[in-house]
Specification:
Layout lengths: L15 E3 L6 E2 L4 H5 L10 E3 H17 L4 E6 L4 H18 L9 H11 L21 E7 L30 H18 L4 E2 L6 E3 L3 H7 L13
Helix pairs in contact: 2-5, 3-4
Length: 231
C-alpha cells in the first residue's frame, strides 16, 4: 500500500468529459491502445470535467512562458483492465531488457521485477478505497510540444523506469543539456501547479488533481475522485 492510499475518498460524481483536443495535442496513435490495451468503448483522452478545465488553464500559463508551445497528452483516463494490462506488459519488457523471460523466472525473481514496476505503475486494485490514479479520471501523463509541433526534449521518455524519470533528476548537473532538460521540466511543473495540479514525486510527466495522490501531496482530505470505471 502506498502512502497516499490511506486518504479517504468522497466521490463527487463529476462526469468524465473529452479533452479539448482543439487546444491541446495528443500522442497518436495512443501508445497503450496500439499495444492492444483493453479500453473497450472508453477513451484514454477522457478526464473529469474540472480536470479538463484546469488543463486549459495550465495551457494558458504555458503560453506566457513559451508562445506557441502546447501541452501534449500522452495518457489520461485508464480503466483498471488497462492498468493490469500495462503492469503485465511493463514487467515482461523490463525482464526482457535484463535478458530474462518473465514467465520462466522464479517467484522471488518475478516479485523483484514487479517491485521495480510498482515504483512507477500503481497496482491495478479493484478495491474502491485504493483506485489507481488514472482510473479516477483525475490523472494525466503529459509532455510539451513547441510552436512547430515538435516534441520538447525532457531528458527521458515517459514511462522510463529509471532515476532519470524523477522530476528533479537533472537539477544537480551543470552541463547545458541537463540544465535545459531541468528547465523544460520546471516550466511543465509551473504551468500545471498554478492550475492546481500536483506532480507525482517519481514521474516528471504525471500530474493529478482531485485524486488520493493529489490529496496526499496537497494535504487535503478527502479526495473527491474515486474509480471512474462505472461512471
Amino acid at each position: 500500500m502506498k502512502p497516499y492510499q490511506s486518504i479517504a475518498i468522497q466521490e463527487c460524481g463529476e462526469p468524465l468529459v473529452p479533452l479539448a483536443l482543439d487546444r491541446l495535442t495528443v500522442v497518436t496513435p495512443h501508445p497503450y491502445q496500439a499495444l492492444g490495451a483493453p479500453y473497450g468503448d472508453r477513451s484514454p483522452y477522457w478526464v473529469r470535467a474540472s480536470v479538463a478545465k484546469a488543463l486549459l488553464q495550465a495551457q494558458q500559463h504555458l503560453q506566457t512562458l513559451h508562445s506557441g508551445w502546447r501541452i501534449q497528452i500522452f495518457d489520461a483516463y485508464r480503466p483498471i483492465p488497462v492498468q493490469q494490462f500495462m503492469v503485465d506488459y511493463t514487467a515482461h519488457e523490463l525482464a526482457q531488457q535484463q535478458g530474462q523471460n518473465f514467465e520462466t523466472l522464479t517467484l522471488p525473481e518475478q516479485e523483484a521485477i514487479l517491485a521495480q514496476v510498482n515504483q512507477f505503475w500503481a497496482t491495478p486494485s479493484q478495491d474502491p478505497t485504493t483506485p489507481p490514479p488514472h482510473s479516477t479520471g483525475a490523472a494525466v501523463d503529459i509532455t510539451l510540444v513547441d510552436a512547430a509541433g515538435q516534441a520538447v526534449d525532457m531528458g527521458s521518455p515517459i514511462d522510463e523506469i529509471s532515476a532519470q524519470s524523477h522530476p528533479d533528476h537533472f537539477a544537480p548537473f551543470a552541463d547545458p543539456d541537463s540544465q535545459q532538460f531541468h528547465t523544460h521540466r520546471c516550466h511543465l511543473r509551473q504551468s500545471l501547479s498554478q492550475a492546481g495540479f500536483q506532480q507525482h514525486p517519481n514521474e516528471w510527466w504525471h500530474f493529478s488533481l482531485g485524486d488520493q495522490l493529489w490529496a496526499w501531496l496537497s494535504q487535503t482530505s478527502p479526495a473527491r475522485y474515486g474509480n471512474a470505471d462505472k461512471l
